[in-house]
Structures are given as structure tokens and as C-alpha cells.
Amino acid sequence: MNLILLGAPGAGKGTQAVKIAQDFSIPHISTGDIFRKNIKEGTPVGLKAKSYIDKGQLVPDEVVVEIVALRIAEDDCKNGYLLDGFPRTVAQAEALDKIAKDLTVINIDVDLNALAARLTGRRVCPDCGESYHISTKKDDACKCGGKLIQRDDDKLETVQSRLNVYTAQTAPLIDYYTAKGNIVTVDGMQSIDEVYADIKKAIK
Ligand code: AP5
Ligand code: MG
Q1: Which phi and psi angles does 12 have, rounded to 5°?
Q2: How far does residue 188's CA lie from ligand 2's centre (Å)?
Q3: Which of 30, 69, 109, 204 has the most Cβ atoms closer than 10 angstroms to its Cβ?
Q4: CA quadruple 118, 4, 96, 70: dihedral positive or negative?
Q5: For 2-110+170-203, CATH number?
């Protein structure tokens, strides 16, 4: 089972991906997480990606495609994998079609107007990757003992640019996969557990 989670920034891709990867025992491949790890480690890929991510723009297709192609060729992907945040452009989707089979796309549909609040209020743990929201988590202590931070690209100015980029470059993928007939849309405005229940129904 090869899954793609499609959705705007803040739609809940990462939140749902953690649950799916655990339940179905498949690796969770988040291109955003891969870039953040590279930025933290100061690698050449990280340095390049940072200049785009900080502006809320997409990292160039050829950089992302190469990373994903190498990752899904690894042994742990033989029985399936879950892509979170890839593809994000039609060019990326076309590149993926050449190297992957049996793709099922889950589109998490949300009201774009609700996303700025979700993103600017998000706090993440740099140690274990867990996400929280300030409306329900007032202190900065993660359950793993880490100290929660705000992602640099979750500041309001960058969030606006990410949402515009989504509409211009990523939303067209809904039509792309609809034409192929391998996309299921779930209502991402429900609670996290309700969204997950719908995703499970869609996968089975
Ligand atoms: P990436 O890390 O992929 O960020 P994103 O797509 O902008 O998505 P987010 O991680 O912000 O949101 P999410 O959908 O995972 O939501 P989450 O579950 O955390 O990419 C970052 C950057 O890297 C990009 O901008 C780009 O520059 C670059 N990049 C990455 N991939 C690339 C690619 N393929 N090509 C080019 N560039 C690429 O939830 C958000 C918040 O909402 C949390 O606080 C959560 O608790 C809350 N929440 C989740 N679900 C619900 C719910 N149902 N109800 C209420 N609250 C909810
Ligand atoms: Mg995410």
C-alpha cells in the first residue's frame, strides 16, 4: 500500500500520518521533516532548502524528487509507504508516477480560512516531533521532556505565503489525481479522530 496525504499547510497531514504509519506499519516519509532535519544538521540540502522554506516557497522540484526517489527505494518501503507533503506540484506527481505504482491519494479537505489559526498556534517538539496547539497546551513542556518551539515558517507572514503557494501549485493535484481515479477526499474540518476514522474507511 503506497499512500499520499494531500492537503494544504495545516490540514493535518502530519497529525494523521503518525497514526496511519503506526497502525499500518509503513514508514512515514515527510519531505518537510527531511528538510528540517537537514537544516538542523547544516547539510548542503538543508542550506538550500532553508532559503525557500523561510519565504514559504517550495523547494525546487529536482531537489525534492531526488530525495524521495532515494527514500522510497530503501528496503523498509518494500511493503508500502506513506508520503506526507509530496508531491506538491504537477511536475513532482509526474516524476513520482514514473517510479511508483499502486498509489492511493487521500486528500484532507479543509477550509483555508481556518488554517492560519491552526498554523500560527502550532507548537512542535524538536526532539520527538509531536505537535500541539496553544489553545489546548498552555505550557511548553512536551510529554517526552523536550521544550516546545514554534516552527520558523509558522509566523503569520510566512503562513500566508504558504497558503498562496498551496492554492497556485498544489491544489491542481486534486484534478490531476481525479483524472486518474485514485483519490479519496476526507473532511478535514472534523475532529482529529473523526478524520482518522474516515481515512481508515478510505484505505480499506
Ligand atoms: P511541510 O512540513 O510539509 O509543511 P506543510 O505542508 O506546510 O504542512 P504542515 O506540516 O504545516 O501541516 P500539516 O498538514 O502536517 O498539519 P499538522 O498535522 O501539523 O513543508 C514545509 C516546507 O518544506 C514547505 O513550505 C516547503 O518549503 C518545503 N517542502 C516540503 N515538501 C515539499 C515538496 N514536496 N516540494 C517542495 N517543497 C517542499 O496540523 C497543523 C496544526 O493543526 C497542529 O497544531 C495540529 O495539532 C492541528 N490539527 C491537526 N488536525 C486537526 C483537526 N482535525 N482539528 C483541529 N486541529 C487540528
Ligand atoms: Mg506536516
Answers
A1: 115, 20
A2: 14
A3: 30
A4: positive
A5: 3.40.50.300
* 32 close to ligand 1 (CB < 6 Angstrom): yes
In the annotation, is 162 catalytic? yes
State in Å: Cα 135 to ligand 1 middle. Answer: 18
- Whether ligand 1 lies within 6 angstroms of the CB of 133 is answered as yes
Does 195 contact ligand 1 (Cβ within 6 A)? yes
Confirm or reject: Cβ of 170 under 6 Å from ligand 1.
Answer: no
Residue to probe by mutation, ligand 1, list 4, 5, 15, most atoms within 8 Å of CB:
15
pLDDT tens digits, the chain, 204 residues: what are they? 899 999 999 999 999 999 999 999 999 999 999 999 999 999 999 999 999 999 999 999 999 999 999 999 999 999 999 999 999 999 999 999 999 999 999 999 999 999 999 999 999 998 888 889 999 999 999 999 999 999 999 999 999 999 999 999 999 999 999 999 999 999 999 999 999 999 999 987
Residue type, 136: T
Residue 19: all three cell numbers together: 497514526
Answer yes or no: 13 catalytic.
yes
Please give the Cα distance from 128 to 44 (Å, whole number): 24
Read off the C-alpha cell for 108.
484532507
In angstroms, rounded to a whole number, what is the distance separating the alpha carbons of residues 59 and 46?
Answer: 10
Q: Which amino acid residue places its CA nearest to atom 53 of ligand 1?
A: 192
